[in-house]
Amino acid sequence: MKPLTFISADEAVRGVRSGDHIHLSSIASVPHVLIDALCRRAGELKDLHFHHFHTEGPAPYGSREYEGVFFDQGFFVGPNVRKSVQEGYADYLPAHLFESQAMYRSGALPCDVAMVQVSEPVDGVVSLGTSVDCSVAALEVARLKLAVVNPNVPFSYGEPIPVERFDALVRDDTPLITKDYVQPTDIDRLIGRNCSELVPDGACLQMGIGSLPNAVCSELADHRHLGLHTEMFADGALDLIRKGVIDGAAKKIDTGKVVASFLLGSQEVYRFIDRNPAVLMREIAYTNDPWIIAQNPNVVSINSATEIDLTGQVCADSIGTRMYSGTGGQLDFVRGAKMSPGGKAIIALASRTAKLAPKIVPTLKPGAGVVTPRADVQWVVTEWGAVNLYGKSLQERARLLISIAHPDDREQLDRAAFERFGPHWHSLSLKRRIQ
Question: What class, spelled out in words, does domain 186-428 have in CATH?
Answer without folding.
Answer: alpha beta
